[in-house]
């Protein structure tokens, strides 16, 4: 699949390439940041802080639109469901997973998103699964199984699962539901306003859980590392990753932009090894090859079929 490097707004070939490569790097940075902060900031506190920072950063940008149009008459139950899926259930478990598993494993599990979206669409909206999609799902799940059981056949037979991988699978299921819901029940809000709603709503929903976390384990010390880490995640993951990805979508279309997300595991594995000292194992390469092959198989469409749609 070739990127349409020439754009009508003057971005230019290399500008599109830069943004296409930058979006997955920012998403991978979120996973690395969570892993770096594990043991320093509890996961619910980290998720709350990340969304609070993002909401505060976005508020001056979206305030004129909020003052002019409010929330555009979008039904409150629909917004609450989006907040729960995209702002709570897909974030807090991910930060919890960082205490148990590597950033590379988190990213490999995240690569399942397009295929899990397809399964949700089939179950909830009756969207047909093409044979290629079924083959892709099977291939990708084999890759995830290898990552989950660390390439250890004995662990597979004993069903020894890392709790971090289970938490991450739950987070990816919630994120896939959020993505599918937006696709089939889009909301009439500008992208940044919707992101602000998810950020502000996520912070408000997570705050009581963070207070309970403090009650059980004590309030975490507000060290420079903790504050800087939450600022980094709010800026990079809460605003930057979404903003850059949205720009790529506007330039090359949603289908092509989603292909950039398949680079997240490669970034996370490489940077995790370089910056966090996480060891790269042969099973990582096998797992990533199977996951990316499964996604490629599942998202491939012959040109004739694509033109027919």
TrEMBL record:
Topology versus the membrane: Multi-pass membrane protein
Keywords, alphabetical: Membrane, Transmembrane, Transmembrane helix
Membrane among keywords: yes
TM segment ranges: 12-37, 49-66, 78-96, 102-120, 132-149, 161-181, 193-214, 226-245, 257-276, 282-300
Record domain EamA: where: 17-148, 163-297
Pfam family membership, one: EamA
Location of this chain's protein in the cell: Membrane
The keyword Transcription is assigned to this record: no
Top-rank lineage group of the source organism: Bacteria
InterPro entries documented for this protein: AA-Vitamin_Transporters (IPR050638), EamA_dom (IPR000620), EmrE-like (IPR037185)
Family to which this protein belongs: Belongs to the EamA transporter family.
PANTHER family the UniProt entry points to: EAMA DOMAIN-CONTAINING PROTEIN, INNER MEMBRANE TRANSPORTER
Protein name: DMT family transporter
Organism, as annotated: Teichococcus aerophilus
